[in-house]
Amino acid sequence: MNIAVISIGNEVVKGRTVDSNSAEISSFLTSNGFNVTYHVSCKDETDEICKSLMFLLEEVDVIITTGGLGPTMDDISIESISKCLRLPLEMNAQALDILKTKYLSLKLELTEERLKMAKMPLGAEIIENKSGTAPGMFLKYDGKMIFSVPGVPREMRSMLPQILLNMGVSKKAYMSKEIRVNGIMESAIAPLIKEVFDVMNNGINIKSHPESFEFNNPVLIIEFYGYGDSQDDIENRINSTYKEFSQRVKNKFSVSI
Predict the structure, then answer these.
(1) CA 186 – CA 229 distance, rounded (Å)
(2) What is the pLDDT of residues 228-243, one digit of tens each?
């Protein structure tokens, strides 16, 4: 099951806000055995949201949008998805009940801006917002799943378990293991990484992450990661690759790791 994350907001595209949501969503889903293949950022503009959505519907099984669910005029994510898919936008009864309860308990009026957060495309289900106000959305469309969550990190985070529940259990297990290598430049260790990858040929990816300068006391984190049919399967393949790599590093560079 391939997944894409769309981060929606002018503040993200222009660089005012760092898109930490996409990273957190992807990390959560990857650790649960799912494959995230795209991160896309776009402005709070219907045409831009639509372009991103329609492209990704051809590429992935699940799309998760983050941002643009609030009461302000630029919060147009749900409305844009509705227009894009040509689905009527309607007042969702469950979302309306939740908003009524929240606002009326504070003796606040249900203004047009607040009611806007209860409108969903026809057929959509809500994802309850346990850390804020605007409900999230879950929509099945043409065999695909579309989720929309708020841009506020704590609100987005509170909806991740519900997203996972709707997606179901992945048929794959994921694992990542790291090793720290001191005193070897990334350019020097690159051929050895390729060598081990080719020799093992077992589907385990090997990635180097520099933590210092190439020419001045280089420090590398070498990551081994991949998916397996079971936890035992992926663990065995990663451990054998890790062991092979460690031994070749020691033999070639005479270092201890």
Answers:
(1) 32
(2) 999 999 999 999 999 9
Domain boundary among 167, 199, 232: 167
pLDDT at res. 257: 72
CA pair distance 47, 55, nearest whole angstrom: 12
We report the CATH number of the domain holding residue 126 as: 3.40.980.10
Residues 134 and 16 in one domain: yes
> What's at 214, amino acid-wise?
E
pLDDT at position 215 is 87
Residues 142 and 88 in one domain: yes
CATH code of the domain in which 243 resides? 3.30.300.100
Final residue before a domain boundary, out of 145, 167, 189 = 167
Say which residues have a Cβ less than 8 Å from residue 3's Cβ, sequence separation at least 6: 26, 29, 34, 35, 36, 37, 38, 60, 61, 62, 63, 64
Place of tokens 């990858």: 197
Cβ distance 153 to 9 under 8 Å?
A: no
pLDDT along the chain (257 residues), means of 10: 96 95 97 96 97 97 97 96 97 95 91 95 95 96 97 97 94 95 94 97 96 89 96 96 94 79
